[in-house]
Amino acid sequence: MSTAVASQQTARSVARVSACALWGLESAMVTVEADVANGLPSFTVVGMPDAAVSEARERVRAAIRNSGFEFPLRRVVVNLAPAERRKEGTGFDLAIALGVLRATGQVTRDADALCLAELALDGTLRPVRGVMARVRRAVLAGVSAAFVAPENAAEAAALGTDAFGFASLRDVVEHVEGRVRQSPSPMPRPAQRPPHPVDLADIAGHETPKRALEVAAAGGHSLLFVGPPGTGKTLLARAIASLLPAFDPDEAIVASAVHSVAGLIDPERPLLGARPFRAPHHTASHLALVGGGSPPRPGEVSLAHGGALFLDELAEFSPSVLDTLREPLEEGAVTISRAGTTATYPARFTLVAAMNPCPCGHAGDPAEQCTCLPDAVDRYHARLSGPLLDRIDLRVHVPRIAYEELREDGREASRTVRERVIAARERMTARLAGTGRRCNAELSVGEVRRHCRLASEAEALAAEAMRGRRLSARGFHRVLRVARTVADLAGSDEIRTADLAFALMLRAQA
Amino acid sequence: MIAVTPSDPRYPPRLRHLARPPDPLWVAGDETALAARSVAIVGTRRMTGYGERVAREIAGACAEANVVVVSGLAQGIDSAAHRGALDGGGRTVAVLGEGITLFLATVRGRRRPLAPRIRARGALVSQYAPTFCAQPWAFAKRNATIAALAEVVLVVEAGEQSGALITAAEARRLGRPLFAVPGPLGSAASVGTNALLASGEARALVSADALLNALGLGRHSAITSPVDPILEALAGGDLDADALRRRVRATEDELADRLMRLVLAGHVTQTPDGRYRRHS
Fold first, then answer.
1. Each residue of B206-263: pLDDT tens digit?
2. Is B154 in the same domain as B104?
3. How far apart are CA A434 and CA A184, in angstroms?
4. B179 in the same domain as B56
5. Domain range for residue B263?
6. ipTM reported for the complex, 2 dp
7. How many Cβ contacts (< 8 angstroms) between chains A and B?
8. A204 lies within 8 A of chain B by CB
9. How far apart are the CA of A333 and the nearest CA of chain B, in angstroms?
């Protein structure tokens, strides 16, 4: 009895520990308040916890006991403040446990760190998803240390915080009490840029498709390859990974944070080294493509943020699934609403798609005769809705290559093209400095007017294109953005006739 | 819709001379189109881009010369011919192989909007009762009726087994002048037409003039030899940008510039599969 009285003397009436809640990539600091009062023994967690947070009570109770501490036989109330939004996941376990220990005086100092780990029943710390996004929020809130599971330490350290990876609750307490100080984890190196499986130099012929790929990589424009099977559409699309410029540090953090929420990063090398290239199969569901579920997980469009999303056999995707792409293509983000919660994930990606020209695949193929009726071909193309097609800037036919062309030399290597892409990107970012946007595909209507200056002869061509009623106003702006990229690749400040013509040529649908 | 019997003055005169004229003939639209000067333009459903253009252009030339275009309103060449005639401001007659009411109710795809246009600017005709359901043998008889209804018959593209060859055979039997459009060797859509030419059953069509001359009408050129090398390269069918560039020996920039001017002038369009198609 006397020890209990002594510990109560050093106890604070209410203990506070920092944690962080996550909705998609949106995060908010959460103060975990623990109060231990006289009354019938009970343990309550309030402040809109979801099921996983409520279950924390059982894990925390066992972890405290099994770590050699005492769980108070009193009335324990834990509040997750602010209490107005629903908290999800298991990342609050450590903060709740430390709060209880601090409130009962078994820990005598405040833990001045973000506490982010799940507890095992024996007191072991387990990793959680989405550490990077939450540590980023904590840094912004002025909390510069993080207590996490060893598996999450590299991820937390990647943002320059003092990240401590603790094996168990016992170790955390020893560290807070200053008895056994651990040193923070070193900042991890970014993941290696993986060797690209496809280099442009591996692909023969196809000058226009390659040029379109270069334009798409530089400006972030969406691209559709159409051609018979076996002509290299997939190979070309995969080559875009070798053309994309390296990540800027802050871009890498956002993209890595999305992967962290999805639980898809290498624990040793949490920062993505190369822009993502995602290629979901055509049987993908809404959930897989744009994200969702409970708690809402990021979909392929968000995992491709900052990189490329490749949809092979575009016409085989379910039309309703394809239509969900319209929001991310327009907004650069996806908002998923579920009962009680909404999650927003960034989703700014370069769309590269490929499809056959008709159901049998052989329309326009010199090697095979197409056997499709005209209406069947129409129906095949109608699987892609008008609004989706309107958002595709470059439509390129990938023909079957004749044998003579296969031996053609002087093919450009990806490295050479990538240098042009990087130079063009630099022009774009300089132009968009301070807006947070990076490439021409993201130019706003006002910026299109300001930055897409046409040379005088190109002006005449543009006027003709508009007069001919062949382009909607939106379509015309999209053409101007592409033309801007073509000019940037050529290092020109003005859009010349040839730049505009190339952009129009790949959007010349009747 | 009306049903006309051979004794009716509105009955198409050219059908009246048949050994067994369709009795009655169901007509929806303008029945005077059935008695006007007319050319049948028929062909395969599985047409190529080349066949589509030729059918449309010849039909357009007929429309300009005030000649009615008769066809079967099937997918492919038939539809292209009807569309070419309507776009050229002319009249056109569609001979159906099933009941008119049933056809209008069930037709899907590109022909759905086309059928009412034909009815408004010509006529839909059928030798079968309005709710008669399509039968394979009915289409063969319909093909023969097309030949009888027109003064001259043109087969644009026909495969080895194409129903258009029935129309051709009937034209020969009735003594109607028969023309066929020569096609590339090796193209499945031209096997039938090339065979007609090889056997001497049909005359090779090299311009719309020949067709109109067969009707005793003056020259009227629609297919003029194109001056633009890009249009010339596209005359044989759709091409992708790289193939086109090699054919006209231009740089990428030159091609984009010249091609765009043709697109804006309405001479070329981009197909849904990203190639370029000559439009006129």
1. 888 888 888 888 665 555 555 789 998 998 888 999 999 989 999 989 999 999 888 8
2. yes
3. 34
4. yes
5. 229-278
6. 0.83
7. 120
8. no
9. 29
